[in-house]
Structure formats: C-alpha cells, structure tokens
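Researcher: Here's a chain I'd like modeled. Treat it as a single chain, no partners, no ligands.
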Amino acid sequence: MTIRVLLADDQALLRSAFRVLVDSEPDMEVVGEASDGAEAVRLTRDERADVVLMDIRMPGTDGLAATRLITADPGLAHVRVVMLTTFEVDEYVVQSLRAGASGFLGKGAEPEELLNAIRIAAGGEALLSPAATKGLIAKFLAQGDGSDEERDPARAERLDALTGREREVLVQVAGGHSNDEIAERLEVSPLTVKTHVNRAMAKLGARDRAQLVVIAYESGLVRPRVD
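Model: Modeled as a single isolated chain. Structure tokens:
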C-alpha cells in the first residue's frame, strides 16, 4: 500500500526538499503541497492523504488550527498528522498533541528519521519515542503550577472506566516506556500490553498513544516531574 503524504509548510524550498525525499521511496508519494493551514485541510480531504506533515507556524490558519479541523472531521478519521517544529522543544508541542496530532518531529531530523516518522504515523502508532515522552511532554505539562485546578475533571472521571491493570499500563505509557519495557515491568506479554493500551484508548476516546500520554497528565493520574 502506498502512503499518501501531504506537505504543509509556508517555505517552498523546504516543501521541495521533502517532496524529493518522500517521492524517492517506493512505498510513499506526495499527493499535494499546502502553504497554509486552510489549504492543508482542503487538500487533505481532496487528495485523500494518509499522513500530513504539518508545520506549526504558518500564516493565516496555522498548523495547530488546521490539525484541530482535520482531527475533528469524522471523514478524516484515518488521517495522521505529524507536526514539524523548528526546534526540538517547541512551545506548541503539547497543544499539537491535544489537538489530535500523532506526534512531532524537528525540522533538523535526519532524512531516515522523517521517512520512518511517516511510516510510523501511517501505521497508526504515535510518533513519540520513550525519551520524547518522558522529557518533552512532561516538561511542557509541568509549565503550569501543577495545581488541581489545571487538571481536567472530566477526563479524571473517565479514568473510572479503566480496569486496574489498564491504569497501570497507562501510567507506564505516560512514563515513556515501550510495550516491551512495560511487559517486562508488569511481567506480562507485549501482546497483553498492546491489548490493554488499545482498550484504554477506546475507553478514553484517544486517537493514539500520544493522546493517552496527554490524558494521563491532564487527568492527574501522572504528575510531571521537572528534573
């Protein structure tokens, strides 16, 4: 199956470089280019894109607003958005994940990293390495004062639907651990962990693993630590 990729960035030169890279792969193709968020949303629908590489900062409708529009559209439920950030630590990273993005990638990433990111997103996985989860996400969510008022009570209540084991797995996911690592920690099989993760996603209305991480912090199940 060929992965249909849409490029959304206001820099034409960067889009051209991404196009050459993506089109060089036998399992993916660029189906469109957008220079702003509104165009990205329209082309995502028109070109039936599977993965959108979305720049956060664009004129007019920015990448964050465009991501919200894409992920809120039931007709685009299969689409995965990977946010492109100028810096590895971007102030909008967590907002992007809350908007429904499946992950983020720095523009300074190596070509193989970019191609791997597209494949991971297309496969329905979250583009969040354990290191990224533990370091970046916790750091951004810790920018507030950590008070209970900042937690989402609605999401906290939804955690009641989880079994004890699903809660344990969710805590491990939010801690930046892979399924194999969680399996070893909880002394179960990786397949069992994957099943618990999928059930937690369904119960919490999460699109993917990235959304689980955000929910775990926003609900107060996991408290971010700043080293």
